[in-house]
Amino acid sequence: MYGRLTSTYTFININADIPLVDNMPDEPIRQIWTEKYRPKKLDEVVGQDEIVERLKSYVKSRNPPHLLFAGPAGTGKTASAIALARELFKDNWRNNFHELNASDERGIDIVRTKIKEYARTSPIGADAFKIIFLDEADSLTSDAQAALRRTMEKYSNTCRFILSCNYSSRIIAPIQSRCAVFRFRALKADDIKKNLKHVAQQEKIDITPDGLDALVYIASGDMRRAINSLQVAASISKKIDSGTLYQTSSIARPEKVKELIACALEGKFMDARENLDTMLIEYGLSGEDIIQQLHKSLFDLAIPDEIKLKLIESIGEVDFRLVEGSNSRIQLEALLAQFSLIGQQLRGSK
I want to staple 89 with a disulfide (CB 3.0 to 4.6 A). Which of 16, 93, 136, 300 is the partner? Predict the structure, then answer.
């Protein structure tokens, strides 16, 4: 006779053993600084005073037209759009502000589906309209822009569009004519320094004067890049100088770039080639990075304008070849050789 097997089941209260998230001690939310210090009000937007004043007038009238923000990266286009939505919609701004990036989906289908479906629905709450912010709108195809033009017209009663782009020339004329165009300029050095000092004060960071100058050089008018570079450097040290910034941002010091150009113009080709090796190998710069720094540093040299013109022409030719896929080392060495030949004319004139 076989014995009968019995089983005993134990019921466990899972909720009693696992602490709830709400009961856990609060920890500071860690954000990247570009988001943490993104302007929440139009008055906090840096370096675009004229644009801010015009946008504030739309807030007072509560009836903005379709807007087109054009300008370089990191100059406040997205920040201005979000700040405008915050001031128009107050606490309800997240429900009536929809952000899309045209570089993710750039064809006509994105206009016929996502954009059209959102634009045709009524705003949430008591607001008269909602806002679609279309970032990198210049990435949309011509067919997509043509379809967008019709959508902007048809649903203007329930939705206003803010288009952001780097190059307004890539936006078709019918869309530009239906928008109030705002052209954002690269930020000035004083505006960048003022904002960086505020960030450093909040994060309890000490930036030396040469460190601020380095950040301005690295940023080239791009506030987002300046703040990102500051955050990376701050992860190494709470006292930040130019050496730390150039090391962490993978950018050659301006004086090293000028030394490279000077060696080439003086006919010291092998010395210039060694400097180039340092930039490519030790700093890890790409050919395009070096070309950009050569172009930027060229205007600070005390040489005749005629020589600068020839050097710029040579830089432009090499830049085109690099974009087309040529070998960066060969092209950069050829550029240094061209600089040496142009330098013979400079040396002969002295």
Answer: 93
